[in-house]
Design brief:
By secondary structure, this protein is an alpha+beta fold. The protein has 12 helices and 18 strands. It is elongated and about 80 Å long. The mean pLDDT is 95.
Length: 432
């Protein structure tokens, strides 16, 4: 225990001594506006950092034409020229377990700048918090990963297993970057993704898919609307019908890891289009939405259940017998992911959390999907989601992260890498 405490103190001290550099790195990444298609600037900073660290680099633009033939490709675009994936490998000495540290560099758009107190990409620091789009989702977590590796290098800790750092594109739009890394051949014995979990440990995560439903009506003049069938009014029945399905699906969730989540696998209607003239009864409505997928079901099972539920809507209203709604699946999707709560990586992360913070971590299921589902199900790499970001501020105006948590997460992950990968030798004489 004395050696473990000494190692912990050495890592902690190094991180505190390099707090300014770590904070500046995060600030630079936030100021690099890496929305979809604009990731190159931020990735240049990542490449520069990995080069200074001496990691083995792999930089490539994913081949959309190749990837679109893969059954798990889900992007709305197929050309990724100028949007590179970046991988840096800290080679181990051998005979140790490998690990992937995966983080996405892309961020969602800032939205209405009027809802932000400062420029959305300012990287401004106030009272120990840094503000900016993407700082919590998830550039803060990415910097934690880099700092963890840097601390291990600086203390001359020689790991047996490889550490594969992945800075990927396109997570927010379906996971193309991580899929491209899997197709390129990157595998490991486990993975950590530092998405914004409020430093909770997520061994399970829901998946999700986007769907469209077309609801038909019968057109008529608005003055004699009783002669028509309003697709808008019928769409309300469809929405209520889906709400009933949501209740049924969630009633089956008994996993205690979901006990703090009000709706573990929601069905959300995010877009409605219908009608083309104020004085006409609308004859077509298009709904677009998202269905959550349980870690205990497949994407195909969730698809079939929603499709069959919509097929049965004629029992609710006879109009749908002659004019059944149609369902199609489109756009982004995220696989659910799950590893056992007694997995050795969960145990190691928990132990090191306790060592650093002197308290028990919260272990629960993720309320949203991540690239962890792809890594677990497609890459066959058991994955945990654990990071410093503020869950409630992801995608929100005035997004922020607590800087202390970036460095605490780096300390926890550094200790976990040492446990997981194994150590050939340890020298706690500081350098760098």
């Amino acid at each position: 225990m004395k050696d473990q405490d000494q190692l912990k103190d050495s890592i902690s001290n190094w991180l505190q001594e390099h707090r300014t550099e770590g904070t500046k790195l995060l600030q630079r990444l936030v100021q690099a506006q890496s929305t979809q298609g604009n990731e190159a600037g931020a990735q240049t900073i990542v490449i520069e950092t990995l080069t200074k660290m001496g990691l083995v680099l792999d930089v490539w633009d994913p081949d959309g034409k190749e990837l679109q033939t893969h059954p798990d490709f889900a992007s709305s675009k197929v050309h990724f020229d100028g949007s590179p994936n970046v991988v840096g490998i800290l080679k181990g000495t051998g005979d140790g377990r490998s690990i992937i540290l995966n983080g996405h560099i892309d961020v969602v758009p800032a939205g209405d700048s009027g809802q932000w107190e400062d420029d959305p990409y300012s990287g401004k620091i106030v009272d120990g918090k840094m503000y900016g789009r993407g700082v919590t989702d998830m550039k803060g977590g990415n910097v934690s990963l880099l700092l963890a590796i840097q601390a291990i290098q600086a203390l001359s800790i020689s790991l047996k297993g490889d550490v594969i750092f992945e800075s990927v594109i396109e997570e927010e739009s379906g996971g193309t970057g991580t899929l491209a890394s899997i197709v390129r051949g990157y595998k490991a014995d486990a993975a950590i993704i530092p998405e914004p979990t409020n430093m909770k440990i997520f061994p399970k995560q829901q998946g999700s898919m986007w769907f469209r439903i077309y609801i038909k009506g019968r057109s008529a003049h608005g003055g004699t609307r009783y002669e028509g069938i309003s697709a808008i009014e019928k769409s309300m029945m469809v929405i209520n019908h889906l709400s009933d399905l949501e209740k049924i699906r969630n009633s089956r969730i008994t996993d205690p890891l979901y006990k703090s989540i009000p709706i573990p696998i929601p069905i959300n209607i995010g877009k409605i289009e219908g009608g083309d003239w104020p004085s006409s009864v609308p004859d077509l409505v298009k709904l677009e939405g998202r269905i959550g997928v349980s870690p205990n079901e497949t994407m195909d099972e969730a698809k079939r259940e929603l499709e069959q539920w919509i097929e049965n809507i004629g029992e609710v209203d006879e109009w749908f017998v002659s004019a059944p709604p149609t369902v199609e699946w489109f756009g982004a999707r995220w696989h659910p992911g799950s590893i056992k709560t007694d997995h050795e990586l969960v145990a190691s992360l928990t132990e090191n959390y306790q060592l650093v913070l002197r308290e028990e971590p919260i272990v629960e299921a993720s309320p949203w999907g991540t690239d962890g589902g792809l890594l677990t199900n497609v890459g066959k790499v058991p994955t945990i989601v654990f990071g410093p970001g503020v869950t409630e501020k992801a995608h929100f105006p005035n997004e922020y992260i607590e800087l202390d948590n970036v460095f605490l997460t780096a300390e926890i992950i550094a200790l976990t890498l040492i446990d997981w990968c194994g150590v050939g030798n340890v020298s706690i004489n500081k350098k760098g």
